[in-house]
């Protein structure tokens, strides 16, 4: 499959617009990403600054009561599994790959809501600190977030080269990390209240 950056930017813009329609997102919330799209930036590349596309997976147990979080090595905090987009994947494929790589879980499935809506549960642009050792200035991660379901809250087998650990946590722990995603999931009835 051939990757086309122009087509990718158009797909990202369409995803932003559909997400805004579904969740009533204010026009300015994704101003940096929209500006990068308008400028023709290669937002698919992790070497593009001031920002680039990442994806993450909100891994839920079958009931939607618990979420699987990873302890991020370089940021030294608990987060949902995720990472840089890699062409020519789709955004959901990227999120699924990251979840499998970082948690070691098998049998992960994309939540059926995404299959019917074609919309991420959340899109969050956040600043990442500079990493001079990697020649990276402070920059934006434009994170497209997807709900992923795990079979019977199976035991994680994290790749310790990627993360420092993984564990099932109450859904409320995700509120401190990705509050808009939790609010959107609750609004749609995809998790326990």
Question: Which descriptors would you attach to this protein?
Answer:
single chain, catalytic activity, NUDIX_hydrolase-like_dom_sf, 32% helix, 8-oxo-dGTP pyrophosphatase MutT (NUDIX family), 8 strands, alpha+beta, Nucleoside Triphosphate Pyrophosphohydrolase
What topology emerges from the helices and strands here?
Blueprint: H1 5-23, H2 31-39, E1 51-60, E2 66-72, E3 77-79, E4 82-84, H3 91-103, E5 109-110, H4 112-117, E6 122-128, E7 139-149, E8 163-170, H5 171-175, H6 179-188
Short structural description:
The chain is of the alpha+beta class.
Describe this structure in words.
Residues 50-192 form the Nudix hydrolase domain. This is 8-oxo-dGTP pyrophosphatase MutT (NUDIX family). InterPro entries: NUDIX_hydrolase-like_dom_sf, NUDIX_hydrolase_dom. One of its GO terms (molecular function) is catalytic activity. The structure is a single chain. With 193 residues, this protein is α+β, with helices and mostly antiparallel strands. The protein has a single domain, classed as Nucleoside Triphosphate Pyrophosphohydrolase (Alpha-Beta Complex), CATH 3.90.79.10. The protein has six helices and eight strands. It has helices at residues 5-23, 31-39, 91-103, 112-117, 171-175, 179-188; strands at residues 51-60, 66-72, 77-79, 82-84, 109-110, 122-128, 139-149, 163-170. Strands 1, 2, 3, 4, 5, 6, 7 and 8 form an eight-stranded mixed sheet that branches. β2 (66-72) and β3 form a beta hairpin. The model has no long low-confidence stretch (mean pLDDT 93).
């Amino acid at each position: 499959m051939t990757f086309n950056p122009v087509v990718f930017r158009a797909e990202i813009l369409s995803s932003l617009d559909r997400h805004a329609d579904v969740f009533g997102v204010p026009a300015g919330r994704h101003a940096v990403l929209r500006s990068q799209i308008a400028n023709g930036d290669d937002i698919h590349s992790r070497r593009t600054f001031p920002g680039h596309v990442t994806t993450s997976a909100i891994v839920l147990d079958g009931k939607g009561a618990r979420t699987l979080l990873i302890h991020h090595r370089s940021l030294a905090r608990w987060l949902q599994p995720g990472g840089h987009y890699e062409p020519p994947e789709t955004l959901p494929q990227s999120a699924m790959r990251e979840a499998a790589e970082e948690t070691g879980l098998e049998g992960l499935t994309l939540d059926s809501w995404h299959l019917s809506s074609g919309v991420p549960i959340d899109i969050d642009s956040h600043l990442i600190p500079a990493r001079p050792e990697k020649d990276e200035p402070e920059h934006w991660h434009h994170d497209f977030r997807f709900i992923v379901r795990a079979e019977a809250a199976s035991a994680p087998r994290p790749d310790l080269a990627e993360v420092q650990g993984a564990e099932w946590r109450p859904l409320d722990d995700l509120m401190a990390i990705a509050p808009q995603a939790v609010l959107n999931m609750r609004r749609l009835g995809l998790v326990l209240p």
